[in-house]
Amino acid sequence: MSELIKLHNVSLKAAEMVEEGRVHKALYSDPDIFEQELDRVFNNTWVFIGHESEVPEAGSYKTAWVGRQPVILSRDRKMNLHVLQNRCRHRGATVCEGRKGKTKSFTCPYHGWGYALDGELRALPKPEEYDGVIDKSELPLMRLRHESYRGMVFATFREDIQPLEDFLGGAKKWIDLFMKQGGGYPVKVLGEHRFNFPGNWKIQLENTTDAYHFPIIHKSFVSSLDDATADIFDFLNGDGFVEDLGNGHSVMVMIPELVDLEADLEQPIPARFSELAAALREEGRSEEEVKRLVRAAHGTGFNLNLFPNVSCSMAFFRVLRPVSVSETEIQHVALGGEGAPVAFNRKRMRLHEHFQGPMGFGTPDDGEAWERVQKGSLAGTDGWILVNRGMGRLRQSADGNVAGAVCSETGMRGAYRQYKKMMAAAEE
After folding, report:
1. CA 384, CA 375: separation in Å to the nearest integer?
2. What is the pLDDT of residue 219?
C-alpha cells in the first residue's frame, strides 16, 4: 500500500532549504515541493493578472492564470473589471479559451451554460429540468478579489490578506517611475509573445534581479549596439544598485540616469534616436515633447521585481507562470503609449524586438542559461546554489532599505526570504 506524503512537512522542508545566502538545488526539481508552492505561495498572495489596457472596452477580456488555476479578466458593460475562475459551475469545463478578445458573454461549450461578463449565470438549456433544483443566482463563475495599481491588475483567492497597495509597499515608488515611459501618454500594452522553457519558475524569478550575468551571456547583444549604447549597458562598475523593497519585491537599478524619464530633458538627443526625433518634428511636435518622447523611448534604467510572478523590466512586463516543477511559461509584454505618436510606439516595438522579441538577442541567451541551471541542478545527490554575492557590502538606501551593488544578489535573497516565510507559514 502506498504511503501518503505529509504535505505540511514537505513545505517545512522547502523552507529549511532556504538559508541566507544559499538555497538547496532540490527546490528546482522536487515535485512535492512544487505542489506545495502552488498552494502556499500562488494561492495565498497577490498575483499579477494583466494590465487594464488589455481590456479597454466593455466586453473585453483576457485569460490568465493564478499559479495553475485558469482565470478570466473581463470588463462588463459598466466598465467594471472582474477576475473570474475559468470553470463552468455545471461540470467544470473552461468557458473561455481565447487569450484575449471581445465578447458579450461566456458560454460553456459542453452543455451551453451562459455567463455574463460579471460572471452571473444568465441562461442554460432545458431550464425546466432545474425547477426547484438550483437557483441561478447562487451559481455565478467564482470571483476572485482583485485590485489595481497604476493599471496593473492583481488578483488573489484570499479575502483576508492585506490590501494590494500595502503588499506593494516600497515598490509603488518604482511602479510610478516605470509608468513614466509612456512619454506623457498612459502606458498601454502593444503586444506580447510567450514561450516555455524547461526549468523551474524560481530560476526566472532570480534572473531579472541578476545583473551579474548580463555582460557574459548577453555579449552578442552588446556587440550589436553602437559604441555609445554599449557604454550605457556596461554598468557593472557603475553607480547602480539593488534594493530589497520588502515582501519579496526588489529593484535593480542598472542605469541611474534613466531612473526618472521626466528628468534631464535638456540632455542632447542621442544619435541613435535622431530618426525618431526627426519623425516627431515632422508631425509638428514641440521640441519639449520630442525630447520627452525620445527619453521615454529608452525605457527605464531598472528592473522592478514584484513577487511572485511579474517583473517591470526596463521597457516591458515579464510574467512567469509555473507549469510544472521543470517547466515555466514566460510572457513578454511590450509597452507603449495610448494615443502616443505612431513613430514613438513603433520605435519602442523595434527596441523590444531587438532584445526581448522572439528573434531578439536576449531571449535565446537567457533561455539557454535557465535550461542549463535546471539540468545542472540534477547533478549529484546534494548541493546548494549560492545567492550570497554582495552580502558583506550591504548598506542602507535613502529609503531605509537594505541595498547592495548592482551585481549583488540582494534582490534574490529578498525574494527567497518571502518564499521561506510563506512556505513555513502553516507551521508557525
Report:
1. 14
2. 86
Q: Say if CB 406 and CB 29 are below 8 A apart.
A: no
- CA distance linking residue 309 with residue 156, whole number of Å: 13
Q: 152 forms bridges with which residues in the sheet?
A: 51, 149
Phi, psi dihedral angles at 370 (to 5 degrees): -60, -45
Contact 337, 187 (CB under 8 A): yes
Q: Between helices 287-297 and 274-282, what is the axis angle to 10°?
A: 140
Which pLDDT does position 143 carry in this prediction? 98
- Note the pLDDT of residue 5: 47
pLDDT at residue 34 is higher than 50? yes
> Which pLDDT score, from 0 to 100, does residue 2 have?
43
Choose among 229, 226, 350, 346: nearest CA to 280.
346
172: left (phi over 0), alpha (psi -120 to 50) or beta: alpha
Long-range contacts (CB closer than 8 Å, 24 or more residues apart) made by 68-77: 68/38, 68/42, 68/322, 68/323, 69/43, 70/94, 71/144, 71/155, 72/96, 72/106, 72/141, 73/49, 73/146, 73/153, 73/155, 74/106, 74/117, 74/118, 74/119, 75/117, 76/116, 76/117, 76/118, 77/117
Exposed (0-12), middle (13-18) or buried (19+): which is 297, by Cβ within 10 Å?
buried
Q: Rounded to whole angstroms, how far apart are CA atoms 58 and 171?
A: 30
Q: How far, in Å, CA of 285 to CA of 311, rounded?
A: 32
Better-scored residue on pLDDT, 230 or 409: 409
Would you give the distance in Å from CA 18 to the centre of its chain?
A: 23
Q: How far apart are CA 205 and CA 187, in angstroms?
A: 24
**pLDDT given for residue 91 in this prediction:** 97
> Which set of grid coordinates corresponds to residue 295?
527619453
Task: Write down the pLDDT at residue 237.
Answer: 87
* pLDDT tens per residue across span 300-357: 999 999 999 999 999 999 999 999 999 999 999 999 999 999 999 999 999 999 988 8
Query: What is the distance of C-alpha 397 from the center of its chain?
Result: 25
Give Cα 301 to chain centroid, integer Å: 17
